[in-house]
Amino acid sequence: MEWVNVVRQKKLLILIMGCFLGIAMSTTGTVLAEKEQAVSLPFEELRTFTEIFGRIKQDYVEEVTDKKLLESAIRGMLVGLDPHSSYLNEEEYKELRVGTTGRFGGLGIQVTMEDGFVKVISPIDDTPAKRAGMEAGDLIIKLNDQPVKGMTLTGAVKIMRGEVGSDIDLMVVREGTPSPFKVTITRDVIKVKSVRSRTLEDGFGYVRISSFQSPTGAAVDAAVAKLNAENGGQLKGLVLDLRNNPGGVLDGAVAVSDTFLDSGKIVFTEGRVKDSQMDFNAAKGDLLNGAPMVVLINEGSASASEIVAGALQDHKRAVIMGRKSFGKGSVQTILPTGNGGAVKITTARYFTPSGRSIQATGIEPDIVLKRVKLEKLDKKKFKSIKEADLSGHLENGEKKKAKKKAAKEGDVKGVDLRDYPLTEALNLLKGIAIFR
Fold first, then answer.
1. pLDDT by residue (tens digit) across 329-346?
2. CATH code of 355's domain
3. What is 339-393 written as a DSSP string?
Protein backbone atom coordinates (compact mmCIF):
# COMPACT_ATOMS: atom_id res chain seq x y z
CA MET A 1 0.00 0.00 0.00
CA GLU A 2 2.81 2.40 0.89
CA TRP A 3 4.55 1.54 -2.42
CA VAL A 4 1.35 2.34 -4.30
CA ASN A 5 1.15 5.75 -2.60
CA VAL A 6 4.76 6.48 -3.52
CA VAL A 7 4.08 5.54 -7.14
CA ARG A 8 1.00 7.77 -7.18
CA GLN A 9 2.97 10.66 -5.71
CA LYS A 10 5.69 10.22 -8.33
CA LYS A 11 3.10 10.20 -11.11
CA LEU A 12 1.45 13.30 -9.64
CA LEU A 13 4.84 14.99 -9.36
CA ILE A 14 5.57 14.26 -13.01
CA LEU A 15 2.11 15.52 -14.01
CA ILE A 16 2.44 18.75 -12.01
CA MET A 17 5.98 19.37 -13.27
CA GLY A 18 4.71 18.86 -16.80
CA CYS A 19 1.94 21.39 -16.22
CA PHE A 20 4.34 23.91 -14.74
CA LEU A 21 6.78 23.36 -17.59
CA GLY A 22 4.01 23.82 -20.16
CA ILE A 23 2.83 27.03 -18.54
CA ALA A 24 6.35 28.38 -18.22
CA MET A 25 7.18 27.62 -21.85
CA SER A 26 3.90 29.05 -23.20
CA THR A 27 3.96 32.31 -21.23
CA THR A 28 7.66 33.10 -21.09
CA GLY A 29 9.07 31.38 -24.13
CA THR A 30 9.94 34.64 -25.85
CA VAL A 31 11.67 36.03 -22.79
CA LEU A 32 13.66 32.84 -22.26
CA ALA A 33 14.66 32.78 -25.89
CA GLU A 34 15.92 36.33 -25.65
CA LYS A 35 17.88 35.65 -22.49
CA GLU A 36 18.89 32.12 -23.56
CA GLN A 37 18.04 30.77 -20.16
CA ALA A 38 16.91 27.26 -19.33
CA VAL A 39 13.69 26.60 -17.41
CA SER A 40 14.46 25.76 -13.81
CA LEU A 41 11.88 24.05 -11.59
CA PRO A 42 12.05 23.61 -7.81
CA PHE A 43 11.87 19.79 -7.77
CA GLU A 44 12.24 19.39 -4.00
CA GLU A 45 9.48 21.93 -3.27
CA LEU A 46 7.22 20.29 -5.84
CA ARG A 47 7.90 16.91 -4.28
CA THR A 48 6.78 18.33 -0.90
CA PHE A 49 3.70 19.79 -2.57
CA THR A 50 2.69 16.43 -4.07
CA GLU A 51 3.33 14.70 -0.76
CA ILE A 52 0.99 17.09 1.07
CA PHE A 53 -1.54 16.85 -1.76
CA GLY A 54 -1.54 13.08 -1.38
CA ARG A 55 -1.87 13.25 2.40
CA ILE A 56 -4.91 15.51 2.13
CA LYS A 57 -6.52 13.23 -0.43
CA GLN A 58 -5.90 10.20 1.75
CA ASP A 59 -6.26 11.41 5.36
CA TYR A 60 -8.45 14.52 5.43
CA VAL A 61 -11.68 14.05 7.38
CA GLU A 62 -13.80 14.63 4.28
CA GLU A 63 -13.22 13.83 0.65
CA VAL A 64 -11.87 16.81 -1.29
CA THR A 65 -11.92 17.18 -5.06
CA ASP A 66 -8.73 17.74 -7.01
CA LYS A 67 -10.21 20.95 -8.45
CA LYS A 68 -10.83 22.43 -4.99
CA LEU A 69 -7.36 21.53 -3.74
CA LEU A 70 -5.55 22.93 -6.77
CA GLU A 71 -7.63 26.12 -6.79
CA SER A 72 -6.90 26.61 -3.08
CA ALA A 73 -3.21 26.08 -3.79
CA ILE A 74 -3.29 28.71 -6.54
CA ARG A 75 -5.09 31.19 -4.24
CA GLY A 76 -2.58 30.58 -1.47
CA MET A 77 0.33 31.03 -3.85
CA LEU A 78 -0.93 34.48 -4.87
CA VAL A 79 -2.11 35.63 -1.42
CA GLY A 80 1.38 34.87 -0.11
CA LEU A 81 2.90 37.44 -2.48
CA ASP A 82 1.19 40.66 -1.32
CA PRO A 83 -2.26 41.87 -0.21
CA HIS A 84 -3.31 42.86 -3.74
CA SER A 85 -2.47 39.76 -5.80
CA SER A 86 -5.22 37.16 -6.05
CA TYR A 87 -6.87 34.48 -8.14
CA LEU A 88 -10.34 35.18 -9.53
CA ASN A 89 -12.63 32.39 -10.62
CA GLU A 90 -15.04 32.96 -13.49
CA GLU A 91 -17.74 34.55 -11.31
CA GLU A 92 -15.29 36.79 -9.43
CA TYR A 93 -13.66 37.92 -12.67
CA LYS A 94 -17.04 38.88 -14.08
CA GLU A 95 -17.86 40.93 -10.97
CA LEU A 96 -14.51 42.70 -11.21
CA ARG A 97 -15.17 43.73 -14.81
CA VAL A 98 -18.61 45.02 -13.84
CA GLY A 99 -17.15 46.92 -10.87
CA THR A 100 -14.75 48.94 -13.03
CA THR A 101 -17.64 50.17 -15.18
CA GLY A 102 -19.52 51.65 -12.22
CA ARG A 103 -22.30 49.21 -11.25
CA PHE A 104 -22.00 46.23 -8.91
CA GLY A 105 -23.62 44.62 -5.90
CA GLY A 106 -22.52 44.67 -2.27
CA LEU A 107 -21.97 47.01 0.67
CA GLY A 108 -19.96 49.76 -1.01
CA ILE A 109 -16.56 49.47 0.69
CA GLN A 110 -13.07 48.97 -0.71
CA VAL A 111 -11.15 46.52 1.50
CA THR A 112 -7.82 44.78 1.92
CA MET A 113 -6.35 42.31 4.44
CA GLU A 114 -4.21 43.39 7.39
CA ASP A 115 -2.95 41.05 10.12
CA GLY A 116 -5.61 38.52 9.16
CA PHE A 117 -8.51 40.97 9.39
CA VAL A 118 -10.44 42.87 6.73
CA LYS A 119 -9.35 46.50 6.68
CA VAL A 120 -11.51 49.20 5.12
CA ILE A 121 -9.56 51.32 2.66
CA SER A 122 -12.55 53.58 2.23
CA PRO A 123 -16.36 53.52 2.00
CA ILE A 124 -17.75 54.63 -1.37
CA ASP A 125 -19.98 57.70 -1.54
CA ASP A 126 -23.76 57.15 -1.45
CA THR A 127 -23.55 53.45 -0.59
CA PRO A 128 -24.94 51.39 2.32
CA ALA A 129 -21.51 51.25 4.01
CA LYS A 130 -21.08 55.02 3.85
CA ARG A 131 -24.58 55.64 5.20
CA ALA A 132 -23.97 53.14 8.01
CA GLY A 133 -20.97 55.18 9.17
CA MET A 134 -18.06 52.94 8.08
CA GLU A 135 -14.74 54.81 7.99
CA ALA A 136 -11.35 54.39 6.37
CA GLY A 137 -9.07 52.36 8.64
CA ASP A 138 -11.86 50.33 10.28
CA LEU A 139 -10.95 46.68 10.95
CA ILE A 140 -13.71 44.11 10.46
CA ILE A 141 -13.14 41.18 12.83
CA LYS A 142 -16.45 39.32 12.43
CA LEU A 143 -19.00 38.82 9.65
CA ASN A 144 -22.38 37.69 11.00
CA ASP A 145 -20.66 36.36 14.15
CA GLN A 146 -18.18 34.43 12.00
CA PRO A 147 -14.56 35.35 12.83
CA VAL A 148 -12.64 36.84 9.92
CA LYS A 149 -9.31 35.49 11.20
CA GLY A 150 -8.28 32.66 8.91
CA MET A 151 -10.42 33.77 5.95
CA THR A 152 -8.99 34.85 2.63
CA LEU A 153 -9.93 38.29 1.35
CA THR A 154 -11.89 36.64 -1.46
CA GLY A 155 -13.79 34.52 1.05
CA ALA A 156 -14.62 37.51 3.23
CA VAL A 157 -15.82 39.56 0.27
CA LYS A 158 -18.00 36.64 -0.84
CA ILE A 159 -19.74 36.63 2.56
CA MET A 160 -20.27 40.38 2.44
CA ARG A 161 -22.01 40.04 -0.90
CA GLY A 162 -25.55 38.68 -0.97
CA GLU A 163 -29.11 39.31 -2.00
CA VAL A 164 -30.17 42.92 -2.36
CA GLY A 165 -32.16 43.95 0.73
CA SER A 166 -30.56 41.40 3.06
CA ASP A 167 -28.65 42.49 6.18
CA ILE A 168 -25.18 41.67 7.37
CA ASP A 169 -23.67 42.38 10.80
CA LEU A 170 -20.07 43.58 10.94
CA MET A 171 -18.05 43.62 14.16
CA VAL A 172 -15.75 46.61 13.82
CA VAL A 173 -12.63 47.78 15.62
CA ARG A 174 -11.89 51.50 15.20
CA GLU A 175 -8.91 53.49 16.40
CA GLY A 176 -9.91 55.75 19.27
CA THR A 177 -12.95 53.62 20.15
CA PRO A 178 -12.40 51.62 23.36
CA SER A 179 -14.21 48.43 22.34
CA PRO A 180 -15.47 46.67 19.18
CA PHE A 181 -18.95 47.61 18.02
CA LYS A 182 -21.53 46.15 15.66
CA VAL A 183 -22.62 47.77 12.41
CA THR A 184 -25.63 46.40 10.52
CA ILE A 185 -25.64 47.12 6.77
CA THR A 186 -28.36 46.35 4.26
CA ARG A 187 -26.98 45.09 0.97
CA ASP A 188 -27.89 46.97 -2.17
CA VAL A 189 -26.98 47.31 -5.84
CA ILE A 190 -24.10 49.76 -5.89
CA LYS A 191 -24.30 52.35 -8.63
CA VAL A 192 -21.21 54.49 -8.41
CA LYS A 193 -21.34 57.95 -9.92
CA SER A 194 -17.64 58.65 -9.66
CA VAL A 195 -17.73 62.41 -10.35
CA ARG A 196 -19.82 65.14 -8.70
CA SER A 197 -19.39 68.90 -8.94
CA ARG A 198 -20.87 72.17 -7.74
CA THR A 199 -20.04 75.84 -7.25
CA LEU A 200 -18.88 76.59 -3.71
CA GLU A 201 -18.93 80.35 -4.05
CA ASP A 202 -18.94 82.68 -7.03
CA GLY A 203 -15.83 81.84 -9.05
CA PHE A 204 -14.81 78.81 -6.99
CA GLY A 205 -15.68 75.25 -8.02
CA TYR A 206 -15.66 71.84 -6.39
CA VAL A 207 -15.15 68.45 -8.05
CA ARG A 208 -15.47 65.24 -6.03
CA ILE A 209 -14.09 61.94 -7.42
CA SER A 210 -15.20 58.92 -5.38
CA SER A 211 -13.41 56.29 -7.49
CA PHE A 212 -11.54 55.99 -10.77
CA GLN A 213 -13.42 54.16 -13.50
CA SER A 214 -12.98 54.01 -17.26
CA PRO A 215 -15.18 57.10 -17.97
CA THR A 216 -13.91 59.20 -15.03
CA GLY A 217 -11.56 61.36 -17.11
CA ALA A 218 -14.30 62.41 -19.52
CA ALA A 219 -16.68 63.06 -16.61
CA VAL A 220 -14.16 65.39 -14.93
CA ASP A 221 -13.63 67.27 -18.21
CA ALA A 222 -17.37 67.79 -18.51
CA ALA A 223 -17.68 68.88 -14.86
CA VAL A 224 -14.90 71.48 -15.17
CA ALA A 225 -16.33 72.82 -18.42
CA LYS A 226 -19.74 73.19 -16.77
CA LEU A 227 -18.27 74.98 -13.75
CA ASN A 228 -16.34 77.35 -15.99
CA ALA A 229 -19.54 78.19 -17.87
CA GLU A 230 -21.49 78.74 -14.64
CA ASN A 231 -18.84 81.18 -13.39
CA GLY A 232 -18.42 83.55 -16.29
CA GLY A 233 -16.27 81.32 -18.44
CA GLN A 234 -13.32 81.01 -16.04
CA LEU A 235 -13.02 79.74 -12.47
CA LYS A 236 -10.87 81.61 -9.96
CA GLY A 237 -9.99 78.32 -8.28
CA LEU A 238 -10.99 74.67 -7.88
CA VAL A 239 -11.09 72.16 -5.04
CA LEU A 240 -10.46 68.58 -6.19
CA ASP A 241 -11.69 66.20 -3.49
CA LEU A 242 -9.98 62.78 -3.45
CA ARG A 243 -10.71 61.92 0.18
CA ASN A 244 -11.69 58.28 0.78
CA ASN A 245 -11.12 57.54 -2.90
CA PRO A 246 -9.68 53.99 -2.98
CA GLY A 247 -8.43 54.29 -6.57
CA GLY A 248 -9.44 52.23 -9.58
CA VAL A 249 -8.19 52.04 -13.14
CA LEU A 250 -4.83 53.62 -14.00
CA ASP A 251 -6.12 55.18 -17.23
CA GLY A 252 -8.71 57.14 -15.24
CA ALA A 253 -6.02 58.66 -13.01
CA VAL A 254 -3.88 59.60 -16.01
CA ALA A 255 -6.84 61.24 -17.77
CA VAL A 256 -7.80 63.28 -14.69
CA SER A 257 -4.21 64.47 -14.19
CA ASP A 258 -4.02 65.42 -17.88
CA THR A 259 -7.11 67.63 -17.44
CA PHE A 260 -5.14 70.03 -15.24
CA LEU A 261 -1.60 69.69 -16.66
CA ASP A 262 -0.34 71.42 -19.80
CA SER A 263 2.73 69.24 -20.30
CA GLY A 264 5.18 66.92 -18.55
CA LYS A 265 5.19 63.46 -17.07
CA ILE A 266 2.19 62.24 -15.08
CA VAL A 267 3.39 58.88 -13.77
CA PHE A 268 5.76 56.09 -14.73
CA THR A 269 5.93 52.45 -13.73
CA GLU A 270 8.81 50.04 -13.27
CA GLY A 271 8.66 46.26 -13.11
CA ARG A 272 10.59 43.14 -14.06
CA VAL A 273 8.74 42.56 -17.32
CA LYS A 274 9.33 44.97 -20.18
CA ASP A 275 5.58 45.45 -20.76
CA SER A 276 5.17 46.73 -17.18
CA GLN A 277 7.54 49.66 -17.77
CA MET A 278 5.39 52.55 -18.94
CA ASP A 279 5.48 56.34 -19.10
CA PHE A 280 2.41 58.57 -19.19
CA ASN A 281 2.68 62.21 -20.25
CA ALA A 282 0.25 65.12 -20.32
CA ALA A 283 -1.06 66.50 -23.60
CA LYS A 284 -1.28 70.22 -24.35
CA GLY A 285 -4.18 71.98 -22.66
CA ASP A 286 -5.24 72.80 -19.07
CA LEU A 287 -9.02 73.19 -18.74
CA LEU A 288 -8.53 75.58 -15.81
CA ASN A 289 -6.01 77.74 -17.71
CA GLY A 290 -3.70 77.76 -14.70
CA ALA A 291 -6.31 78.73 -12.09
CA PRO A 292 -5.16 77.65 -8.60
CA MET A 293 -6.16 74.26 -7.23
CA VAL A 294 -6.35 72.57 -3.84
CA VAL A 295 -6.44 68.77 -3.71
CA LEU A 296 -7.95 67.19 -0.58
CA ILE A 297 -6.61 63.78 0.49
CA ASN A 298 -6.72 61.61 3.60
CA GLU A 299 -5.76 58.13 4.78
CA GLY A 300 -8.52 56.67 2.57
CA SER A 301 -7.00 58.13 -0.62
CA ALA A 302 -5.19 55.28 -2.35
CA SER A 303 -3.66 54.07 -5.60
CA ALA A 304 -5.05 56.11 -8.52
CA SER A 305 -5.85 58.97 -6.11
CA GLU A 306 -2.21 59.09 -5.10
CA ILE A 307 -1.13 59.15 -8.75
CA VAL A 308 -3.21 62.29 -9.33
CA ALA A 309 -2.14 63.98 -6.08
CA GLY A 310 1.52 63.11 -6.66
CA ALA A 311 1.52 64.39 -10.24
CA LEU A 312 -0.15 67.70 -9.38
CA GLN A 313 2.13 68.14 -6.36
CA ASP A 314 5.35 67.47 -8.29
CA HIS A 315 4.37 69.91 -11.05
CA LYS A 316 3.50 72.58 -8.43
CA ARG A 317 0.06 72.64 -10.05
CA ALA A 318 -1.93 72.24 -6.85
CA VAL A 319 -1.62 72.55 -3.09
CA ILE A 320 -2.17 69.15 -1.46
CA MET A 321 -4.13 69.52 1.77
CA GLY A 322 -5.40 67.06 4.37
CA ARG A 323 -3.83 63.95 5.89
CA LYS A 324 -1.23 61.49 4.63
CA SER A 325 -2.61 59.10 2.00
CA PHE A 326 -2.88 55.30 2.15
CA GLY A 327 0.39 54.46 0.39
CA LYS A 328 -0.54 51.93 -2.30
CA GLY A 329 2.08 52.48 -4.98
CA SER A 330 1.80 49.22 -6.89
CA VAL A 331 0.14 48.31 -10.19
CA GLN A 332 -1.97 45.19 -10.61
CA THR A 333 -2.45 43.54 -13.99
CA ILE A 334 -5.41 41.28 -14.76
CA LEU A 335 -4.33 38.23 -16.74
CA PRO A 336 -7.23 36.07 -18.01
CA THR A 337 -6.83 32.30 -17.67
CA GLY A 338 -8.08 29.53 -19.92
CA ASN A 339 -10.86 28.48 -17.52
CA GLY A 340 -12.68 31.84 -17.73
CA GLY A 341 -11.10 33.22 -14.57
CA ALA A 342 -8.12 35.50 -14.16
CA VAL A 343 -5.02 36.18 -12.12
CA LYS A 344 -4.66 39.62 -10.57
CA ILE A 345 -0.96 40.05 -10.00
CA THR A 346 1.25 42.93 -8.96
CA THR A 347 3.50 43.69 -11.92
CA ALA A 348 5.05 47.09 -11.17
CA ARG A 349 5.54 49.99 -8.81
CA TYR A 350 4.47 53.42 -9.92
CA PHE A 351 6.41 56.64 -9.38
CA THR A 352 5.46 60.30 -9.38
CA PRO A 353 7.02 62.58 -12.05
CA SER A 354 9.96 63.44 -9.76
CA GLY A 355 10.69 59.75 -9.18
CA ARG A 356 9.07 59.32 -5.76
CA SER A 357 7.74 55.90 -4.90
CA ILE A 358 4.82 56.17 -2.53
CA GLN A 359 4.53 52.45 -1.85
CA ALA A 360 3.90 52.02 1.89
CA THR A 361 4.71 55.72 2.50
CA GLY A 362 1.87 57.69 0.89
CA ILE A 363 1.60 61.29 -0.26
CA GLU A 364 2.53 63.88 2.35
CA PRO A 365 0.20 66.91 2.18
CA ASP A 366 1.70 70.37 1.71
CA ILE A 367 -0.70 71.53 4.43
CA VAL A 368 -1.60 69.00 7.12
CA LEU A 369 -5.08 69.13 8.64
CA LYS A 370 -5.92 67.17 11.76
CA ARG A 371 -9.28 65.56 12.43
CA VAL A 372 -11.50 68.29 13.87
CA LYS A 373 -15.18 69.11 13.86
CA LEU A 374 -16.50 72.63 13.31
CA GLU A 375 -19.73 73.86 14.84
CA LYS A 376 -21.51 77.12 14.19
CA LEU A 377 -21.81 79.21 17.36
CA ASP A 378 -25.14 80.54 18.54
CA LYS A 379 -25.11 84.28 17.72
CA LYS A 380 -27.31 85.10 20.71
CA LYS A 381 -24.86 83.51 23.14
CA PHE A 382 -21.67 84.76 21.49
CA LYS A 383 -22.61 88.19 20.12
CA SER A 384 -19.58 90.47 19.74
CA ILE A 385 -19.63 94.19 20.58
CA LYS A 386 -18.50 96.58 17.85
CA GLU A 387 -17.94 100.35 17.61
CA ALA A 388 -21.35 100.83 16.00
CA ASP A 389 -22.98 99.28 19.10
CA LEU A 390 -21.51 101.85 21.50
CA SER A 391 -23.75 104.66 22.74
CA GLY A 392 -22.89 108.03 21.14
CA HIS A 393 -20.49 106.58 18.56
CA LEU A 394 -19.35 108.81 15.69
CA GLU A 395 -21.01 108.34 12.36
CA ASN A 396 -19.01 107.11 9.40
CA GLY A 397 -18.91 110.52 7.72
CA GLU A 398 -19.97 109.36 4.28
CA LYS A 399 -23.49 110.77 4.04
CA LYS A 400 -24.31 109.10 0.75
CA LYS A 401 -22.74 105.77 1.54
CA ALA A 402 -24.71 103.02 -0.15
CA LYS A 403 -26.26 100.56 2.22
CA LYS A 404 -25.21 97.06 1.34
CA LYS A 405 -27.04 94.02 2.50
CA ALA A 406 -24.83 92.28 5.04
CA ALA A 407 -23.92 88.76 4.18
CA LYS A 408 -25.06 86.17 6.68
CA GLU A 409 -22.17 84.88 8.70
CA GLY A 410 -21.17 81.41 7.54
CA ASP A 411 -23.71 81.42 4.72
CA VAL A 412 -21.34 80.19 2.01
CA LYS A 413 -22.88 78.71 -1.12
CA GLY A 414 -22.33 74.97 -1.43
CA VAL A 415 -20.13 74.54 1.68
CA ASP A 416 -21.05 72.57 4.79
CA LEU A 417 -19.21 74.31 7.62
CA ARG A 418 -18.89 70.98 9.41
CA ASP A 419 -16.50 69.92 6.61
CA TYR A 420 -13.39 71.56 8.03
CA PRO A 421 -10.95 70.51 5.25
CA LEU A 422 -13.25 71.81 2.51
CA THR A 423 -13.75 75.10 4.35
CA GLU A 424 -9.97 75.51 4.69
CA ALA A 425 -9.44 74.63 1.02
CA LEU A 426 -11.92 77.31 -0.07
CA ASN A 427 -10.31 79.89 2.24
CA LEU A 428 -6.89 79.13 0.75
CA LEU A 429 -8.18 79.51 -2.81
CA LYS A 430 -9.79 82.84 -1.94
CA GLY A 431 -6.53 84.04 -0.43
CA ILE A 432 -4.57 83.08 -3.55
CA ALA A 433 -7.14 84.84 -5.72
CA ILE A 434 -6.84 88.05 -3.67
CA PHE A 435 -3.06 88.14 -4.03
CA ARG A 436 -3.35 87.50 -7.75
1. 998 899 999 999 999 999
2. 3.90.226.10
3. TS-EEEEEEEEEE-TT--B-TTT-PPPSEE-------PPPTTTSPPP-GGGSTTP
